[in-house]
Inverse folding.
């Protein structure tokens, strides 16, 4: 029997969608590392009755631990500590030492915002230091302390771990929680799980469903594997979770996937295309994930041959900077990203990216010719080894019968003077088209770098 | 008694955080428009037992309707229709006419992916056309039909609206569901609510808590208003929900906020800074949200005087294209965004944005001087009325005692030759610093445009 956990995310602003929840997914990853099985995430408003109902549900469904996030702030609508205290049948008590520690923390804030209302701060501090009797305090990262609150009697229900809402407070605090004795005892029955991920690009999800049926027919013990597939920004992710004894079943399953999808499988180790592109640009070819180049099945193992380090620059139209923003997301990207040009108007395409205006006149701004010229302009103007050009119709306006919304041309100029140029017709609205085009560009860069 | 609703989001990939849930927040907005009170969102794995438990919870807590999203795909792990059928005590039946309609829909797919396994498609189609007896079918937008499944007996529990997972299928389908008789009768008791939003920039959330106490002391009937505050990317959002009779209480509350926060309140109508910047660049000053310019309390109502249309261009370093990507998010932005330069390396700052290398040498790349020079370079090189420069230390490396991680300099060059230049010290990791710096830049652009 594995340890089961539930997450209760509190906050009307999360429930109503004004803030997206980053804590649930992050905590889900941490629980998995600990071998804990996440069964439910509930999002509830800042209403004590609804919060209490969610906690009762988690207890009734047999959760061993419940994590809460949010509702620890200094304002009156932050009620989590009180609701959890009542759920665990504990009185609320003021922790004087905690008042002093929080007071120390907020001091610099009071110099930073000189017009702050001092009385408001004191009221908030006392509220944050009022905790269920007997709870273990997790030291504040921001101003809010976290809590580990055990059940009223041993074995009488889940241990509740109360964490703050802001991710940059919650994440460091989690390390403390894991080390605390109270949490360790709740986790004592956790069994180890393995989780592995395959990533494929450019096929529909139904193909994977068929591959599962093929694997079953070929005798792969799928009953020992918990396989889920999902389509995410045009990539199919196949995640498999299993107990250590099922290693061989997983290997047999991967073998079937490789046989059927050698041309679209790009990652066997969970690495993202972003990580693979970064590794290729750094010249770290061995970190490039897939063991061979999609599309070149049977050829020598291209990804394992050494690659030189390369610098990169972009010239984007429809993606409006999203590609260079994505390339610079990873720490250390300044080592290989020189920069980019966002050529939204045709004038900027000509003046900044050096596109010949006659090309635009003859073929239109959305064309393979202009995409290649943008790629060349990016590499020459920004003095980079590799240039990338993207031009398309993001919509909702600007489409025509010949060039509909969703048509995007992409080109990668490689150091040997060649181009890898493609067009795609992307579904969805403006945000989808821009987002998908950025992903397609990442895969085109990867393919060009593996091949160059 | 208002109509209460719950949302059950299914999918192991959502629960484990590999896909972020966009449906819950979107459905929350739609429910609010209908006067329906969303009480809970539950995220569950693709396990029938857990899904059934979430449905039972919603029924026990007295939900009148439950919306589900996801789990309608063609693969074997998509179980929602079956679980909902069993929950409503209905047999599963194959709808032959629906098989034919889905077959028509997937035909084009089969020409697009010529190597597709035809048998896999047929199996999936029959699975998707097997539905609970008596359910109302919502016509597929993708390949999956939605369902409206009533309780086994009148008043015997919630009506369940079964919707597909992909947002671009779910959203158009919702319109059908609202029109269907089955959903209308479940909604018959809905009472109208109003919801209004104030947005402030540049103060801590605790200040709003104090403002609530002040309003209470001044006799504002806060008990008639459901007020929630949250800090979102550096902006404080104050959302108030109330029944129509409480209009005057809301107006009295807004008056207190305006008195105390005239310098930081930038939106009284829920408009975002993005929308305000777009309106100002288009020359639609009246759409600019706040009734006066923060920081200029007592002066004539600047936002209501007409403004000329302006074009804009950016030169970014640490934000790596996120600012120009954000400026081009809105449809029609090509009318006023000329483009941008992402000057990640110093060489590109000099060659593309025209920054004097001696400025970099003397003051460092992260300095007010270089931010102003980037702003000037953006406007002159890209021939725009307004130029924006951003340069900072996004981290995790590159910080020093004098210029720590989080230090960002921003400058807006206005058509009169002036600059609005600021530095900020932003908390958090690399992603936080880049994201916050982008928001600060949006507010600086707004301020410069209102003042120019």
């Amino acid at each position: 029997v594995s340890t089961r956990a539930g997450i209760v995310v509190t906050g009307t602003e999360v429930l109503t969608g004004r803030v997206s929840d980053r804590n649930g997914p992050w905590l889900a990853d941490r629980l998995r590392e600990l071998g804990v099985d996440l069964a439910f995430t509930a999002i509830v408003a800042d209403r004590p009755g609804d919060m209490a109902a969610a906690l009762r549900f988690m207890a009734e469904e047999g959760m061993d631990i419940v994590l809460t996030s949010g509702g620890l702030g200094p304002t009156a609508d932050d009620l989590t500590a009180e609701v959890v205290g009542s759920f665990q049948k504990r009185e609320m008590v003021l922790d004087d030492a905690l008042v002093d520690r929080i007071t120390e923390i907020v001091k610099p804030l009071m110099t930073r915002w000189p017009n702050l209302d001092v009385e408001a701060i004191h009221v908030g501090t006392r509220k944050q230091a009022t905790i269920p009797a007997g709870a273990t305090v997790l030291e504040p990262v921001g101003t809010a302390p976290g809590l580990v609150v055990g059940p009223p009697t041993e074995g009488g229900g889940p241990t509740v771990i109360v964490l703050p809402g802001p991710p940059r407070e919650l994440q460091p605090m989690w390390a403390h929680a894991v080390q605390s004795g109270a949490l360790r005892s709740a986790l004592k029955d956790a069994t180890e799980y393995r989780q592995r991920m395959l990533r494929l690009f450019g096929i529909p999800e139904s193909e994977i469903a068929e591959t599962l049926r093929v694997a079953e027919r070929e005798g792969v013990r799928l009953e020992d594997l918990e396989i889920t597939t999902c389509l995410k920004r045009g990539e199919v992710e196949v995640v498999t979770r299993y107990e250590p004894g099922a290693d061989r079943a997983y290997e047999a399953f991967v073998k079937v996937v490789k046989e059927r999808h050698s041309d679209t499988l790009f990652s066997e180790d969970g690495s993202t295309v972003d990580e693979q592109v970064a590794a290729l640009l750094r010249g770290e070819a061995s970190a490039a994930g897939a063991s061979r180049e999609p599309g070149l099945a049977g050829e020598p193992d291209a990804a394992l041959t050494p690659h030189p380090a390369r610098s990169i620059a972009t010239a984007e139209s429809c993606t409006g900077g999203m590609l260079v923003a994505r390339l610079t997301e990873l720490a250390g990207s300044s080592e290989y990203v020189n920069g980019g040009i966002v050529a939204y108007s045709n004038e900027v395409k000509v003046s900044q990216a050096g596109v010949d205006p006659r090309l635009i006149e003859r073929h239109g701004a959305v064309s393979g010719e202009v995409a290649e010229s943008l790629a060349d302009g990016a590499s020459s103007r920004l003095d980079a080894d590799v240039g990338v050009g993207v031009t398309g119709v993001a919509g909702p306006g600007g489409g025509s019968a010949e060039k509909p919304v969703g048509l995007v041309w992409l080109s990668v100029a490689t150091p040997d003077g060649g181009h890898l140029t493609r067009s795609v017709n992307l579904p969805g609205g403006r945000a989808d088209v821009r987002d998908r085009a950025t992903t397609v560009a990442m895969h085109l860069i990867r393919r060009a770098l593996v091949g160059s």
